[in-house]
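Structure tokens please, single chain.
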Amino acid sequence: MNSSQAVAPELDASCCPPPAAALSAEDARQKALVFKALSDPNRLRLLSFVKADESGESCVCDLTEPLDLGQPTVSHHLKILVDAGLLHRQKRGTWAYYSLVPGALERAAGLLTGL
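Here you go.
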């Protein structure tokens, strides 16, 4: 045999079993969606404003001034938080109101423990 030819060792399935509790592709996608939503300082602030509101919900019209951002930008950030399952959106007339999804922050806090 030529020394430039590599000999592939026979693979023994018992030597390298797949990890027993590996994260599925869908679970990883879902967790990454939440991490991405939480990775922006403006979105973290939005969550804190909604959580701190005594009524349990905030109108998008009340969230633009504290962030010093335009309504379209705030709406974009809020959509990401809704898509990640952290906020719930309810349309009333021309305004949208946002509230925390029950248990969402607790689930987000536990995401790393499930790895």
